[in-house]
Every structure is written in C-alpha cells, then in structure tokens.
From TrEMBL:
Gene3D superfamilies: Sulfate adenylyltransferase. It comes from Xenorhabdus bovienii str. kraussei Quebec. InterPro entries: DUF984 (IPR009326), PUA-like_sf (IPR015947). This is ASCH domain-containing protein.
Amino acid sequence: MKIHELMEVIENKYPAAESWVFGDSIEMYDKLSALVAEGTKTATSCSYHAYKQVDEEIEIGNEYIVLNGKNLPVCVVTAIPHLIQE
C-alpha cells in the first residue's frame, strides 16, 4: 500500500481526526511518535500560555493522527480527560 493510500484509509476511518506531531524537530517527531505507537509515551503537556495560544482547544474524545518526521502517519490517539492548572 502506498503512503497516500494509507493516509486515505486512515482519514476515512477517522474523518474528524486532525494531525499532530510531538516535539520541536524532525528527530523528536520520529522518536516521540515511535514511543506513542509502542505505548511508552501515554501523555503530553505544555505550558498554560502555549495551550491558550492554540486556536482550537483539545476536546475529550477527539482523535489525532500522530505523524513522524517524514509527515507519515504512525498511529491514532484519542484525547482523554486532563488537568489544566494555572
């Protein structure tokens, strides 16, 4: 299966899913997406300031396609309840 076909399958199965990367460099995208896919990385965080700068808030139950450093899908995650502390 070619990459564009795989992405089409994923987008059809998760039509409302947005794409995400973890980290701030291609190397981090690869490393962290692998950790998510294997189940080692099960949570994430950011500063409150950064959280408030995002146009769309993360909603419980939303699904996100996790991408690696080549912008390829690695897995799909679902947002679960989280704590926001100011």
